[in-house]
């Protein structure tokens, strides 16, 4: 698979059903792979993510489901 | 720009929060209160985290020929991320829902150009629309930090942190954000940055 095809395949996936509106963003890795990250690397990952959702293998939820304990930070160093 | 005004409003809304960590579901609910009707879903997937930690995909779904189109906002994150990173990733991508102007893409070619520019932020393209879109995307991470580590919380912790920065671990645990974000917010220069990010509030 050539690098170009990663981007082409993502675009085909995004626009295959005649969609007129697509917005796409990503959160880049703070510890990127050696040699850097290309647009094709990113397209491959985004396409993979969308396909995992379509295949039903993703964990989908309407909520973030935060389970972190909460604390009023004004009291953090006052006890 | 409406998006910037809404982000200013969002940062201002959370600025008085001292009970932390900020729940991304509360951020979502506040965004919805601004009239956003998108169907929002958090989607945990397996990604190569040497490349990306998450992604935002907004698109239109049609459930039938005569059905109203539904705008869907899918927020992808890697399931192996620790909760602090997942919080930051999801919040940053949530903020993109407010974006109804400059960084909205429409056509296949525009989308392709945007991904290319986002991937190579340093690309030589002065005064291009894509350059501005890429810059807006990078800035969104800092807006997310301003939402998730509210001003009043920072003010409460700053003096103690300055007196004894060995307490950083306790602060990191309380705000549940990556260390690099916490260090930035507790830095001396943050008030000026925050002033810019919040529109001077």
Question: How would you explain this protein's 3D organization?
Answer:
The complex is a heterodimer of chains A (79) and B (201). Chain A has 79 residues and is of the alpha+beta class. Chain A has a domain at 3-55. Helices cover 38% and strands 15% of the residues of chain A. In chain A, helix 1 (3-15) crosses helix 2 (39-55). The radius of gyration of chain A is 19 Å and the shape is extended. Chain B has one domain (2-197). In chain B, strands 2-4-3 form a 3-stranded mixed sheet, covered by helices on one side. In chain B, helix 1 (2-14) runs parallel beside helix 5 (129-148), helix 2 packs parallel to helix 3 (83-95) and helix 3 packs across helix 5 (129-148). Chain B has 9 helices and 4 strands. In chain B, strand 3 (52-61) and strand 4 form a beta hairpin. Chain B has helices at 2-14, 24-33, 83-95, 108-119, 129-148, 151-163, 168-175, 179-185, 190-197; strands spanning 19-20, 39-45, 52-61, 70-78. The chains are: A alpha+beta (79), B alpha+beta (201). Strand 3 of chain A pairs antiparallel with strand 1 of chain B.
Mean pLDDT of chain B: 88
Tell me the helix content of chain A: 25-40%
The biggest beta sheet of chain B, please? 3 strands, mixed
Tally the helices of chain A. Answer: 2
Q: Which term fits the overall shape of chain B? A: globular
Beta-strand segment tally of chain A: 3
Calculate the terminal CA-CA distance of chain A, rounded to whole Å.
60 Å
Number of domains of chain B: 1
Taken in chain order, the helices and strands of chain A follow as HEHEE
Structural class of chain A: alpha+beta
Rounded to the nearest angstrom, the radius of gyration of chain B is: 18 Å
Number of helices of chain B: 9
Number of strands of chain B: 4
Average pLDDT confidence of chain A is 87
Return the string of H and E elements of chain B.
Answer: HEHEEEHHHHHHH
Provide the structure class of chain B.
Answer: alpha+beta
What oligomeric state do the depicted chains represent? Answer: heterodimer
Largest interface: A-B, 53 and 70 residues
What gap, in angstroms, lies between the N and C termini of chain B? 17 Å
């Amino acid at each position: 698979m050539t690098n170009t095809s990663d981007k082409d395949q993502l675009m085909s996936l995004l626009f295959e059903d005649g969609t007129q509106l697509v917005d796409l963003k990503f959160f880049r890795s703070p510890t990127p792979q050696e040699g850097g990250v290309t647009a094709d690397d990113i397209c491959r990952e985004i396409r993979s993510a969308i396909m995992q959702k379509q295949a039903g293998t993703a964990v989908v939820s309407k909520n973030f489901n935060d389970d972190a304990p909460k604390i009023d930070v004004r009291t953090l160093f006052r006890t | 720009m409406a998006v910037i005004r809404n982000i200013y409003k969002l940062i201002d809304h959370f600025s008085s929060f001292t009970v932390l960590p900020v729940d991304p579901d509360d951020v979502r609910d506040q965004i919805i209160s601004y009239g956003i009707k998108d169907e929002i879903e958090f989607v945990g997937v397996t990604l190569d985290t040497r490349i990306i930690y998450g992604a935002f995909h907004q698109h239109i779904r049609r459930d039938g020929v005569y059905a109203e189109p539904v705008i869907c906002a899918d927020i992808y994150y890697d399931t192996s991320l620790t909760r602090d990173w997942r919080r930051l990733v999801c919040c940053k991508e949530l903020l993109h829902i407010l974006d109804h102007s400059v960084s909205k893409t429409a056509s296949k070619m525009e989308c392709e150009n945007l991904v290319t520019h986002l991937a190579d932020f340093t690309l030589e393209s002065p005064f291009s629309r894509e350059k501005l879109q890429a810059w807006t995307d990078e800035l969104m991470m800092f807006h997310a930090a301003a939402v998730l580590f509210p001003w009043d919380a920072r003010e409460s912790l700053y003096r103690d942190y300055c007196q004894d920065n060995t307490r950083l671990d306790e602060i990191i645990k309380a705000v549940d954000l990556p260390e690099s974000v916490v260090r930035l917010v507790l830095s001396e220069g943050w008030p000026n940055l925050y002033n810019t990010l919040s529109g001077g509030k």
